[in-house]
């Protein structure tokens, strides 16, 4: 452990020393190379003696990186607002005149999406005035054909029976607990029949595949790196201040905070992410290699 702390300390101290040497006009010019090297050694010795400083620096660095990543996500979502509001054929539930819309990019083979499903159910029940859109993003299709099969059947259920039946099917798939290659054709058909759907219309496969391809392109535009990818924003006048992108599994509290912010009920200018401590876990699914165009 001390060896790792020493190595980290030396790396950090070396970085500090290099930064000082790189400064074009700074006090560093007043020190000789030997003196600058000695300063680095002193800094490294101090950090070894005070490892809590390394931990604190690491936490601040991670927070800064998360903030920068969130800004990139949010700016991309705001730019894509018009496309996210184009919902022809996309399964949606909630009032059409809702002031807030929550969009989830998901894959039925994704274990993280399965973990997020009960959270979304609770969030939907608590926010009947919010509109929810579900965009199939079949990132696992190249490995598990049931990914595409389940998405096609879900879109078919939505076209046949509407939002209520679709949600029954959608949640039914995740309640099987089968994902990452364990989902079966029998699971899919059982969920569809339980939702009240009739026989699948295979002639509509092209229509479903076109919608899935559009979702893939939109996810790429948004810079999403896996599923679930959730965007919470107002239906009109979206801005970085009222838009939140959730790249992974989070708690109900995080989702509620994002919805309140989009509705103008919570958040301040520059508040791009949920309050610290609310994240349940920040995990998401992504297949090996490039996850884009994986169908």
SSE order, as H and E? HHHHEEHEHHHHEEH
Which strand order does the major sheet show?
Answer: 1-3-2-4-5
Low-confidence stretches: 1-14, 16-25, 267-282, 290-295
Strand content: 5-15%
Count of discrete structural domains: 2
What is the CATH architecture term of the largest domain?
3-Layer(aba) Sandwich
Please state the average pLDDT score.
Answer: 84
Task: Please give the share of residues in helix.
Answer: 40-55%
CATH superfamily of the largest domain: Glutaredoxin
Shape estimate? elongated
Count the strands?
5
Radius of gyration: 24 Å
Instruction: Tell me the name of the CATH class of the largest domain.
Output: Alpha Beta
Oligomeric state: single chain
Helical/strand content category: alpha+beta
CATH-assigned fold name of the largest domain: Glutaredoxin
**Biggest beta sheet attributes:** 5 strands, mixed
Task: Walk me through the structure.
This protein has 295 residues and is of the alpha+beta class. The protein folds into two domains: 2-49, no CATH class; 79-262, Glutaredoxin (3-Layer(aba) Sandwich), CATH 3.40.30. It is 53% helix and 8% strand. The chain has helices spanning 2-22, 33-49, 51-79, 81-84, 111-126, 146-161, 163-175, 185-194, 205-222, 252-262; strands spanning 92-93, 100-106, 131-136, 229-234, 244-246. Strands 1-3-2-4-5 form a five-stranded mixed sheet, with helices on both faces. Helix 1 (2-22) runs antiparallel to helix 2 (33-49), helix 6 packs antiparallel against helix 7 (163-175) and helix 6 packs across helix 9 (205-222). The longest helix has 29 residues, at 51-79.
